[in-house]
Amino acid sequence: MANQATAVAYAALLLAGSKTPLTVENVEKLTKKAGVNVSSQLASQFVRAFEGKDIVSLLSVGGGSSSAAPTAQSTQAAAKPAEAPKAAEKPKDPEPEEDVDMGGLFD
Q1: Sign of torsion, CA 83 68 49 22?
Q2: Which residue, 8, 76, 91, 106, has most beta carbons within 10 Å?
Q3: Number of Cβ atoms within 10 Å of the Cβ of 46
């Protein structure tokens, strides 16, 4: 049963990617070509579950809402050349400690 459900899910993804309508017949054709016998009941349940929904947008980052912007930002960041490391700063001389009056606590 798990292999059948997986085969139906992959068939739906292939159909969505090729802009082919998600129908029971199309799902059964693809699964049959893949060598998986799927019951028509499982295929019809899957088709009904995704009826009227865009599978590609459901799989997009952020539930399909303008996912192109974060992707563009991350690719721009990856395309920038690495900046040269800054010259190591010389450590500053430690400031001389001052005698602090502790109120006679350690006299």
Answers
A1: negative
A2: 8
A3: 20
pTM of the predicted structure, to 2 decimals: 0.51
At 11, list the tokens: 């068939």
In terms of Cα–Cα distance, which of 49, 10, 48 is closest to 31?
Answer: 10
Tell me whether residue 51 is exposed, middle or buried, using C-beta atoms within 10 angstroms of its C-beta: 0 to 12, 13 to 18, 19 or more.
Answer: exposed
Structure confidence at residue 63 (pLDDT): 46
String of DSSP letters for 36-57: ----HHHHHHHHHHTTT--HHH
Measured between alpha carbons, how far apart are the two ends of the chain, in Å? 84
List the Cα angle 24/30/36 in 5-degree steps: 100
